[in-house]
Amino acid sequence: MFIGIGLFSLFTILYHLFMIRYLPPIEYGHLNTLIALFMVISVPAGTAQTTVTKFFSSFKVQSQYHQAIALLRHFLLLMSIIALSFFLLILFASSHISSFFQISSRGLVILFGLSLFFSMVIPVLWGGLQGLQKFGFLTLNLIINSGLKLGLGVLFVFLGFGLLGAMTAIAVSYIITTILSLIIIGISLFKEKAVANHGVIPKSSSPSNFSEAYHYSFSAGLVLLCFMVLTNIDLILVKHFFTPIEAGYYSIAQMVSKIILILPIPIITVMFPKLLDGREKRTLSILGKGLGVDALICSGAVLSCLLFPSPIVRILSGKVYSECSILVGIFSVNMTLFSLTLILLYYHLSTPRRGFIYSLFLFTLIEIGLILLFHDTLTQVLIMVGIIAFCLMVINLYLAYRPYQDERKEGFT
Fold first, then answer.
1. For residues 171 and 410, which has the higher predicted lDDT (pLDDT)?
2. This prediction's pTM
3. Which site among 38, 111, 389, 398 is 20 to 30 Å from 291 CA-CA?
4. What is the 3-state secondary structure (H, E, C) of the chain?
């Protein structure tokens, strides 16, 4: 899984680095804005994957494969309906979306909608593979998905299709891996059922039995949605308020944030299961180590971005844009704060406490409001984002350690 996630992230970064170098800043700005919107809208799919994984694993342990199949069908149907709704909305509103984001091609927006459809369905299948513990097949799917996106994107751009080719590569990669995942999980379930204990009587597969799954997914979904909005809404609003060339420069500088936000993923992958232990002192110790490692790694990235912004822009884009160099340092600080906040959010999700969601939701709205009010320059937008990132990190740090401090005070009294 670490190899798969690592290669998936590497191919994704290489895809963006190639597009930065071979697409004009304006076209890369279009592409990056649509990808940012893509990430925000597809949050429910990530939540569905987590939910399917949890309950699929439980059904597998109990050899309740009828329940597992019913769950898979239920969530596939649900996500297909949601994805189709988004696709039809994007299809009929493509001209308005093009106008809002200052994109001249409606075809690009329609391709975006097609990509979104399959990207919202495939996480259900990936969740099933993860729940069945078919980690090899899941890793293969991740590598094929990002590898196809990179390979086809390079090919289509070199063939002269430009921005449409870059978006087509994303759509094709999701279509192919969705079909592949369906075949693999179908064969896997058939084999698992063949060797299962037939003496186990499955429970009813009525959709009403999945209410617990919906409750489980609500908190995680809201947290993921807020975090995606917090880290992507600035790019979306910049694309609306600023000229296409300015939005392009902002997108190039934002590439730094994409790299920094990948850094805590391995930490969270290892840390989250250990946090489910439930012992307060032990989990706080694990949290402290996770935050420390992330801060150490990110501090090196921040220092590099502050001291050598121009060489970093040259490495990312192949050229030196002075407009980007000014933004890179601020981006690195903001995304470091968000990466620390992400670790804290997963810590909160490992506990029964859900009060942190109120502040997260509130500050998400505040960030949108601040950008709407203060967007005279690109730097001003980044300062507004930085203020929110700092406040969220401090608040979530306080919420994480406050219960332990309260227990110590009670012990002294």
1. 171
2. 0.69
3. 38
4. CHHHHHHHHHHHHHHHHHHHHHCCHHHHHHHHHHHHHHHHHCHHHHHHHHHHHHHHHHHHHCCCHHHHHHHHHHHHHHHHHHHHHHHHHHHHCHHHHHHHCCCCCHHHHHHHHHHHHHHHHHHHHHHHHHHCCCHHHHHHHHHHHHHHHHHHHHHHHHCCCHHHHHHHHHHHHHHHHHHHHHHHHHHHHHHHHHHCCCCCCCCCCCHHHHHHHHHHHHHHHHHHHHHHHHHHHHHHHHHHHCCHHHHHHHHHHHHHHHHHHHCHHHHHHHHHHHHCCCCHHHHHHHHHHHHHHHHHHHHHHHHHHHHCHHHHHHHHHCCCCHHHHHHHHHHHHHHHHHHHHHHHHHHHHCCCCCCHHHHHHHHHHHHHHHHHHCCCCHHHHHHHHHHHHHHHHHHHHHHHHHHHHHHHHHHHC
